[in-house]
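Email to the structure team, subject: Secreted protein model.

Hi all, the expression group asked for a predicted structure before they design truncation constructs. Nothing fancy, just the tokens so they can compare against earlier work. One-line instruction: predict Secreted protein, return tokens.
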Amino acid sequence: MAKNRKLLLAALLLIAFAAFKLVLLQWWQAQQPQAVAAQCDLTEGCTLPDGSRVRAAAVSTKKPFDIYIEHAPAGTEQVSISFSMKNMDMGFNRYMFERQPSGNWQAVRIRLPVCVEGRRDFTADITIGSRTFQMAFTAE
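Reply from the structure team: attached below.
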């Protein structure tokens, strides 16, 4: 009888732990910034909804390239970019920008993740401070 109680207690503790984990996961996801869609061509450059201007040299899957952010909002402490593809796991590929003496931001020698299917349709998530902007683009 004591063995059954121990098994029941263990099962109840596992269920409580799983429920706690689900609640914590939902809370964490709610804290993540929501991406704002931005119509942008990285190689031509564009202005994001917050007034920042983003541009890149030739965006290629074959060689590294640089991306520049100009006119980021005052007080911006961190800028990053990551790349993904629809229905394709691209792994971790976040690049941090460095603030330049001019006040602009630059990320150098970015390499796009390689798609085993040969696709070149990417989505860039640019995080400027606490805001994230999402843009679709096609690499060379």
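Residues 84 and 123 are 5 Å apart (CA to CA). Residues 1-32 form one domain. Ping us if the truncation boundaries need rechecking.
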